Amino acid sequence: YREGSFFSIPSGNWSVVEACSGVRYLIASVTLGTLYAYLTYHSISRRLIFIAFSIVVPIVANGVRAYLIVMTGHLSDMQLAVGVDHLIYGWIFFGLVMLLLFWIGSFWREDHLDGIVSVENSSPADLESSSVPIKSTLGMAGLVVAIAMIWPVYLNYLNNKSDVRPVPEISVADLSGKWSTASASLTDWIPGYIGSPRQFIGHFYHENKHVGLYITYYRNQDQDNKLVSSSNVLVSDRDSRWRNVDGSKRNISLGDAPFTVHQNQLHASKERLLIWRWFWLIGYETADPYVAKMIQALNRVWRNGDDGAEIIIAAGYEHDPEEAAAVLREFMADMKPVIAGKLQAVNSVQTD
After folding, report:
1. What is the pairing mode between strands 243-254 and 257-267?
2. Domain residue ranges in the chain
3. What is the DSSP string of 81-116?
């Protein structure tokens, strides 16, 4: 039985998390495959074909790896491939896949032609002058080291100049009076974040419409305390109550201005939630985590600070998610300017 990224088999329950996507497999395989193609082949066509294989093979292999891990757990009565050995099996499997890829690629190798081509196409004068002066080699090596050292030095400079102001309390209210603050929570669901961000959780209602608002604000970000991270999740892997069953981008219209949010559907045994979420990055808003990462990097380089927040609004529904979408669209049209203004004010507050 499968629901979203969670599935159950007779021996136990499993979930497919971001770490299982195979992106790390793909990055490593393409890097190694490109290097292997450059060292092993002369023709551009063979190099491109091998690089294409280094992209396709890890994607297929990752699916096989996931299947084998589940079956290993199932056939061992959930004794194997459910802990640290889960990762070890993945590393071993990746090594075997890359070894197989290189072995197959060796049948069409062209690196053995290097000596023949260089001798046949070179005159005695070329062979005599082919040696590179030591000064040029050392100069080029020094230039490479100097360029490589620029970035760690600049990163250290940015970290020393980083904004160490604490984040003040965040509160959001509809000054127009349309959306009233609810004393009771819409649901017991709360998203999970790493580090120590400042958070605001509020529940609003208007007539028979109820909306939950979740704002998570980060400042002074580092590896264990950052806004855009695979460790920040809507539903914990070990959560036995909620399931993230669907996620996609959605374009909505707010007046004349189109806006994109990331939409998720969360299911519990008797509850349904529709989630809309997006990032705020010192005045810029986007639902794309890659764009958010790029904007954060540019803000750091330009010394604009590293402040950023994720805004989540949630509404419940019974059968059709469009029931909740209509409520969220109305809430967003009324409250999005208020939320953005509050975040901008938090960013500019000087707190001792």
Report:
1. antiparallel
2. 2-120, 133-160, 180-348
3. SSSHHHHHHHHHHHHHHHHHHHHHHGGG--GGGHHH
Dihedral sign of CA atoms 48, 54, 57, 58 in order: negative
How far apart, in whole angstroms, are the C-alpha atoms of residue 19 and residue 352?
39
End-to-end CA distance of the chain: 54
Per-residue pLDDT averaged across 180-197, rounded?
A: 92
What one-character DSSP code corresponds to residue 276?
Answer: E
Q: Is the dihedral of CA 316, 322, 323, 326 positive or negative?
A: positive
Name every residue whose Cβ is closer than 8 Å to that of residue 240 and which is 6 or more positions away in sequence: none
Condensed to tens digits (0 to 9), the pLDDT of residues 31-86 reads 999 999 999 998 999 999 999 999 999 899 888 988 988 998 899 988 887 777 77
Phi/psi region, residue 168 (left: phi>0; alpha: psi -120 to 50; beta: rest), is: beta
- The span from the CA of 330 to the CA of 327, in Å, is 5
Q: What is the side-by-side strand order in the sheet with 6-9?
A: 2-3, 6-9, 12-15
Residue 228 to residue 160: CA distance in whole angstroms = 22
Structure letter (DSSP) for residue 18: G
Q: Are 265 and 252 in contact (CB under 8 A)?
A: no
Concatenating the DSSP letter of every residue in 294-342 gives HHHHHHHHTTS---EEEEEEEEE-SS-HHHHHHHHHHHHHHHHHHHHHH
Report the percentage of the chain scoring pLDDT > 90: 51
Task: Answer whether 0.85 is exceeded by the pTM.
Answer: no
pLDDT at 336 (0 to 100): 95
Q: Whose structure tokens read 């929570």?
A: 185
Residue type for position 51? I
How far out from the chain centre does Cα 220 lie?
19
Structure tokens at 234: 């809507």
CB 316 within 8 Å of CB 273: yes
3-class DSSP state for residue 214?
strand
Tokens (6 digits) for 181: 């603050």
Q: Would the pLDDT of 257 be above 60? A: yes
| Residue with the two structure tokens 């082919």 | 130
Contact 191, 293 (CB under 8 A): no
